[in-house]
Design a protein that fits this description.
It is a single chain. The protein is elongated and about 120 Å long. The strands form 2 sheets. A 4-stranded antiparallel β-sheet has the order 4-5-6-7, with no helix packed on it. It has a domain at about 85-165: Roll (SH3 type barrels), CATH 2.30.30. With about 170 residues, it is of the alpha+beta class. It has helices at about 1-20, 25-35, 70-75; strands at about 100-105, 110-115, 120-125, 130, 135-140, 145-150, 160-165.
């Protein structure tokens, strides 16, 4: 026990001896480092007043609701799809998802072979409908199908658009 007490006293004496000065240069740096500096705080940004906006488009049709059929009946430019016509199978797919994979000729009439996203192959001819925009086939060649689509561009307006379905290699 005496040995422990002597060892602790000796360690304390050594630690006290190490404390003597030695930090004068650090204390000098700390005292002179901030001299001559003046702090400046940037002014707060100017608060702009809020400009009120009044929504006046309540009479316009909502882009989040499907258009009603009674609106399409009175098309202003005379172009409108036949909504009473029975839809064909290929009208249930977007045109971008259909692929032309070939063509064939029978009795001097050319047909195209179209693949659906489900993988089934169907033969189509001039007058058949493709896609969801009332697209009717006007022309078939060995490399493409040309069709006329009717697209609604306003509340009561329909526009004609020519689209092409190219042969998929």
């Amino acid at each position: 026990m005496k040995i422990r007490l002597i060892a602790i006293m000796f360690a304390a004496a050594l630690l006290m001896a190490c404390e003597s000065g030695g930090h004068d240069d650090l204390e000098n740096f700390i005292s002179t480092a901030g001299k001559g500096l003046r702090g400046q705080v940037d002014p707060l940004p100017e608060v702009k007043s809020y400009e009120f906006f009044t929504y006046d488009a309540f009479e316009m049709s909502s882009p989040f609701e499907p258009r009603k059929n009674e609106q399409t009946q009175g098309a202003g430019n005379g172009i409108k799809p036949d909504l009473t016509r029975r839809k064909e199978y290929l009208e249930s797919f977007p045109l971008e998802s259909l692929e032309m994979v070939g063509s064939l000729e029978q009795n001097e009439t050319i047909y195209a072979v179209v693949r659906t996203p489900e993988g089934s192959l169907l033969r189509v001819g001039i007058g058949n409908y493709l896609g969801q925009d009332f697209g009717r086939i006007n022309q078939i060649s060995e490399s493409e199908i040309r069709l006329r689509e009717l697209v609604q561009d306003g509340v009561n307006e329909w526009t004609e658009r020519i689209s092409t379905l190219m042969l998929k290699n």
